[in-house]
Specification:
This protein has 120 residues and is mainly β. The protein contains no helices and 11 strands. It has strands at 2-6, 9-12, 17-24, 31-38, 45-50, 56-58, 66-71, 76-81, 90-98, 109-110, 114-119. The strands form 2 sheets. Strands 2, 4, 5, 6, 9, 10 and 11 form a 7-stranded mixed beta sheet that branches. A hairpin with a 4-residue loop joins strand 7 (66-71) and strand 8 (76-81). The mean pLDDT is 96.
């Protein structure tokens, strides 16, 4: 299984980025997908998750600003991040879990991470 994340970078506060994660080696329609992030000196946190059936989870800190979506035909999950703040600076990881439902922990698969830096 491979999860290849991309789309990170440097952006000013208030700006937007879209992260992408291409999955291979798994049956995408049977896997819940998520995005975690880890800021320097902080614990890793789940930012957003999406089940194959369309259920969605967002952390309170990103509700109304981030949107997770998945294209099951392309085996790809996206994280659209708008109104970015300096506190969103972190390494963002794409994750997958073998379940048809929504997963908020105990993910099975992890990508390599993509770095997001938001300047003030």
């Amino acid at each position: 299984v491979q999860l290849q994340a991309s789309g990170g970078g440097l952006v000013q506060a208030g700006g937007s980025l879209r992260l992408s994660c291409a999955a291979s080696g798994l049956t995408f329609g049977t896997v819940a997908m998520g995005w975690y992030r880890q800021a320097p000196g902080k614990e890793r946190e789940l930012v957003a998750a999406a089940s194959s059936g369309g259920s969605i989870y967002y952390a309170d800190s990103v509700k109304g600003r981030f949107t997770i979506s998945r294209d099951n035909a392309k085996n790809t999950v996206y994280l659209q991040m708008n109104s970015l703040k300096p506190v969103d600076t972190a390494v963002y990881y794409c994750t997958g879990k073998k379940t048809y439902g929504l997963a908020t922990r105990n993910y099975d698969y992890w990508g390599q991470g993509t770095e997001v830096t938001v300047s003030s």
